[in-house]
Specification:
The complex is a heterodimer.
Chain A lengths: L5 E4 H15 L3 E5 L9 H6 L4 E3 L4 H13 L3 E7 H6 L2 H9 L6 E5 L17 H6 L5 E3 L4 H12 L5 E4 L4 E4 L13 E4 L4 E5 L3 H14 L4 E5 L2 E3 L3 H11 L2 E8 L4 H12 L4 E6 L9 H7 L4 H14 L2
Parallel strand pairs in A: 2-3, 2-4, 4-5, 5-7, 6-7, 10-11, 10-13, 13-14
Antiparallel strand pairs in A: 1-8, 6-12, 9-11
Chain B lengths: L2 H22 L4 H6 L1 H11 L14 E4 L5 H10 L41 H15 L5 E6 L6 H12 L5 E7 L2 E2 L2 E2 H5 L4 H7 L3 E6 L3 H13 L5 E6 L22 H14 L2
Parallel strand pairs in B: 1-2, 2-3, 3-7, 6-7
Antiparallel strand pairs in B: 4-5
Helix pairs in contact in B: 1-3, 1-4, 1-10, 3-9, 5-6
The chains are: A alpha/beta, B alpha/beta.
């Protein structure tokens, strides 16, 4: 059985980390854009009003202001829905923040289909692609609330731009408080030799569930949680490719340019093995219940199981 | 610095700009020349800026939002001996710290942040000013923008934020030379009445002649006294100022002079200060 320690939205891990950071470090400054409580930065706002600013519905200006705060020595965190945190101010992130290597941290909440009934406008499914292509950017995609808290803490003490992708819905907590977290270091969640499922964010849980199903069918899958998409843990990927000889990637994000593509870049260069990709197949989401949408768009454990069978048929 | 000396300094900066661009074979003379007095008076008479310690924590910040006119900044930094004058010859060459638009990652002292994509500088300035207010520090922030740049929506997000947060430590300058790449600003997309727009956004607005050093000097002084409101200098300027064949011609926005043109321009500038 997959060990589940609770059910909690990753946004609360982000918010709790900010409050902790705020207590420890006067350099932490947080900016919101009218989505303050929904992205869970209201705790920081309440505790440290003098180091908080709501800039209104103006995300481009928010990222510009964060740049200025960083120039003046603060460690600014901005947070809003992922679409508006990554897409709207993309060029500010590129030209002002990354090109100047400014110490700005971007919290992209409401990632993926699980945003649910709000529909495609608010379901961020492209941030991995548009953030990982930026020089100097570090991209974190934690798998549960505990890991999101650790990722946020780590981002604060990492020098340079960091994007943290997290979500709104309650999801299973599958990591322990004591589990180590290091930017750039993948975490092996389950050992196995027949195939390796590499997952990020919410899909780590689905991957563990799929490994259980596969186990019953005599297929022993290794599962790796890749919480840092950039810089990606090349060694963990190459080792797994050698060990398992087949890879399935899983992400709640567009396949084109996404996490699977990042894995494939490492695999084809170093240790080519057959791969399958689970993710959004070049389409937008739509309104619906989160679980309903995950099933409709093929992002459930059973879809991973099918992908594993497909990739194993090509394994030499 | 006295007005007479500022005038001579402005002429030297203009000559630097023309020589640099001629050597580089590309770049933006028109807007560089229009902003000379605004930048010279700021650096020599108003900004707390130590050329030998450009990261001093008590410094005032200069954000060149219209990054394409960086030759004016590079020249002033050289005149202040912040960088070596010889380095001006490397503008726009591979490996140079003097990139075609200011680049923070090249380690050129005095360049606070990478700029050049129009419309971003004011937000950055708002962020620095907000930081200084939070820290209860006296540092002031200056942001130089173009008039065509006012067409960017981000400017108005930042303008709203600056007055909302009562950032009286922020001084924006709009170099209104009236021209952009495609022609007259009024024809491409009219920004007028620009002073009224800033007033409506809650700013202290000072309209002035952007080549009149006495007016500029007074405007920067007045801006420092204003409480609770950011200040914007709406500076009427001439694109290509000081060079007869460049003045008020949009084509000189982004074109380098030939050697002959450069020499003629320099003799005109020399004549103007005799």
């Amino acid at each position: 059985m997959v060990k589940v320690y609770g059910n909690k939205a990753t946004r609360f891990g982000f918010g709790e980390a900010l409050v902790e950071l705020g207590k420890k470090d006067e350099k932490i400054f947080v900016l919101g854009a009218d989505t303050v409580s929904s992205v869970a930065i209201n705790g920081f706002q309440k505790s440290f009003p003098e180091r908080f600013a709501n800039v209104g519905i103006a995300e481009s200006n928010m990222l510009g202001m964060a740049s200025g705060l960083a120039l003046a020595g603060f460690v600014p965190f901005v947070a809003t829905y992922g679409v508006f945190a990554s897409g709207r101010p993309w060029e500010q992130i590129r030209t002002t923040i990354c090109y100047s290597n400014l110490n700005v941290k971007i919290g992209g909440s409401h990632s993926g289909l699980m945003v649910g009934p709000d529909g495609a406008t608010h379901q961020a499914l492209e941030e991995i692609a548009i953030m990982r292509c930026l020089p100097k950017m570090t991209l974190l995609s934690p798998c549960d609330a505990i890991e999101t808290k650790k990722a946020t803490m780590a981002a604060a003490y990492f020098n340079g731009p960091v994007y943290i992708r997290y979500g709104r819905e309650n999801i299973p907590v599958i990591t322990e408080e004591t589990a180590p977290f290091e930017i750039g270091k993948a975490q092996i969640m389950k050992e196995g030799q027949d195939v390796c499922i590499m997952a990020t964010g919410t899909m780590v849980y689905e991957s563990l569930m799929s490994a259980e199903i596969l186990e019953k069918e005599g297929i022993n899958a290794k599962v790796i949680n890749i919480h840092t998409i950039k810089p990606i843990d090349e060694k963990a990927i190459i080792d797994a490719a050698k060990e398992c000889g087949a890879i399935v990637t899983a992400e709640e994000h567009q396949i084109f340019g996404g996490f699977g593509s990042a894995v494939a870049e490492v695999v084809v260069k170093n240790m080519p093995v057959p791969m399958e990709f689970i993710g959004m197949k070049d389409s937008f989401g739509e309104s619906g219940k989160p679980s309903e949408l995950m099933a409709k768009f093929g992002l459930k454990d059973v879809n991973i199981v099918n992908a594993v069978k497909k990739v194993l048929s090509r394994k030499s | 610095m006295e007005l007479g000396d500022l005038k001579i300094m402005s002429a030297s900066v203009r000559k630097d700009i023309l020589k640099m661009l001629e050597l580089a074979g590309s770049g933006h003379p028109g807007g560089s020349l229009s902003s000379v007095e605004l930048v010279v008076d700021l650096y020599f008479n108003h900004m707390r800026f130590d050329p030998k310690n450009t990261k001093d924590k008590n410094r005032d910040y200069f954000i060149l939002s219209k990054g394409h006119v960086c030759p004016v900044l590079y020249s002033v930094l050289a005149q202040l001996e912040c960088i070596n004058g010889d380095e001006l010859c490397t503008l726009r060459q591979a490996g140079s710290r003097l990139q075609g638009h200011p680049a923070a990652d090249k380690g050129l002292p005095g360049v606070e942040v990478s700029t050049g994509s129009l419309g971003y500088g004011l937000s950055i300035g708002v962020g620095v000013a907000k930081a200084m207010k939070t820290l209860k520090q006296k540092n002031r922030v200056y942001v130089l923008m173009g008039d065509g740049e006012q067409q960017e929506g981000t400017i108005w997000e930042a303008a709203m934020a600056a007055s909302h947060f009562k950032l009286d430590n922020l001084c924006a300058i709009v170099d209104c030379n009236g021209l952009q790449i495609d022609g007259n600003v009024s024809d491409v997309l009219n920004i007028e009445p620009i002073a009224d727009k800033y007033k409506a956004f809650g700013w202290n607005v000072i309209s002035l002649d952007g080549h009149d050093l006495a007016q500029i000097d007074k405007a920067y002084s007045d801006a420092k006294l204003k409480k609770d409101k950011p200040t914007v200098l709406i500076a009427k300027t001439v694109k290509g100022k000081g060079v007869s064949f460049m003045e008020n011609i949009a084509d000189w926005h982004g074109k380098a002079p030939s050697k002959e043109q450069m020499l003629q321009a320099i003799s005109e500038i020399d004549a103007s200060i005799k």
